[in-house]
Amino acid sequence: MATFKSFEEITAWQKARQFCNEIFCICEKTNLSRDYKLRDQVNSSSGSIMDNIAEGFGRGGNPEFIQFLEISHASACESQSQLYRILDRKYIPEEKFKELYDIVSEIRRMTLALITYLSKSGMTGPQYKLRQK
Known about the structure:
elongated; de novo design (two linked rop proteins); 78% helix; mainly alpha
């Protein structure tokens, strides 16, 4: 696995950003816009996926990065649950649900793979590398 110079290079973050944008569009263009609590919850959890990847990257060490990746993974699970509520309330059709659910499933796989890699890696993280120079 390559060393990341920025969180924007992390594929899981890129996918999470895509998912977050998709959710925002649904919030704006469907009746979900009037279901304030669910709208705010899914908007928050989808944003939390990408934000925690970025924050973990910025923490500088593998244990911290892993902790934030775990939070990101949990937010992805939360988003998947909220997708069921969005489907059940008929804000999106089954096809859109499947598309979004598959994106989040891929993000979950990616974050777990990154957690596994970092757990086995002797690398210390971006901030520690900068301090050693």
